[in-house]
Amino acid sequence: MSVEVRNVSFSYGGADVLRDVSFRAGPGDLMAVLGPNGAGKSTLFGCLLGYLRPHAGQVCLGGRDVQTLSGAAIAREIAYIPQSAPVTYNYTVLDTVLMGVTHQIGIFSAPKQEHTDKAMAALESLGIAHLAGRGVMKISGGERQLTLLARALVQDAGVLLMDEPTSSLDYGNSFRVMRRIQRLGEQGYTVIFSTHEPNQAFRYANRVLALSDGGVLADGRPNDVLTGALLSKLYGVGVAVRGVQVKQAEYRMSIPWDEEEQP
Predict the structure, then answer these.
(1) Options 3.40.50.720, 3.30.70.20, 3.40.50.300, 3.50.50.60; CATH of 3-226
(2) From residue 25, how far is each of 5, 28, 119, 159, 161 by CA, in Å?
(3) What is the pLDDT along the chain (263 residues), one digit of tens a residue?
(4) How far apart are CA 85 and CA 21, in angstroms?
(5) Helix ranges, 78-112 (H)
(6) Model-level pTM?
(7) What is each CA distance from 4 to 19, 57, 59, in whole angstroms?
C-alpha cells in the first residue's frame, strides 16, 4: 500500500506547523522521519491517520484521500504504533494482540479461532509466542513494544506508522525492536517511523524525511542526504558523520560536537 502526501500544509491558530510537505512511500520503504521538537512530525502523523485535516494539500492511501475514508477503512490500511501505550489492565499478550482485529469483527463480537491463529502467528514471527499467556504488566518494555507491533500486524494493514518506537527502551531492546521493524520493511510493508536518533536512520532505514520548521529539508537515501552539514542545520549543533567497519559491512554514524571539541 502506498502513502502519498501532496503539498500538505497545516496550522494551529494561524501558526504554520506543516508547509507544503510532499513525499511518497511504498511497499518495501522503511522511512525515518527526523526533525527537532516542533518540526511537525506529530502533526504529519495526525494527517496521515486522518484525524487532522490539512488546510491545503492531500494525503492519499493507495490513491484514495484519507479524508474520504472511515476510521475502520483507515485501520484496514494503516496500523499505528504509539511511543508507549498506558497499561491499565493486565490483559494477556495474546488478548492485547487480538485487539488488532476489532475493526474486522466488530467491537461487540468475540474473536474466532482463525483470529487467534493469526495472532499467534504474528507473535511467532516476532519471537515472543512464548509470552502469549503472560500479562502485559509482567513483561519488559521491549516485549511490550513487540506486542504492540504484533497487534498492528494482525490488522492486515499494509502501512505501519510508528511514533518513536524505541523511545522508552534500553540499548539492547532498541536494537531488537528496530531489527524486527527492518525485516517487516524487507517483507514488503510500507513502514514510516519517527525518531530523534539519526543513527537509527543510518542503521535501519532506506529512506529519510528530514523536517525543519514544518517543511521538508531533505528526502532521500540516508547515506546520500544525511550529511554533517544537514544534521547540524537540523539540530543546531555540530555533527560529524563517519563510517564504521563491522565485519564485512560499513555503516555510517553521526557524532555531535561543539566548538570546544574537535570533530
Answers:
(1) 3.40.50.300
(2) 9, 9, 27, 9, 11
(3) 899 999 999 998 888 899 999 999 999 999 999 999 989 999 999 999 999 999 999 999 999 999 999 988 898 899 998 876 667 789 999 999 998 887 666 665 677 888 899 999 999 988 899 999 999 999 988 888 889 889 988 988 899 999 998 887 888 888 888 998 999 999 999 999 999 999 999 999 999 999 999 999 999 999 999 999 999 999 999 999 999 999 888 999 999 988 776 65
(4) 28
(5) 93-98, 102-105
(6) 0.88
(7) 15, 11, 6
Copy the grid coordinates of residue 144.
511490550
Cell readout for 43 is: 502533526
Tell me 254's DSSP state: E
With left for phi above 0 and alpha for psi between -120 and 50, is residue 40 left, alpha or beta?
Answer: left
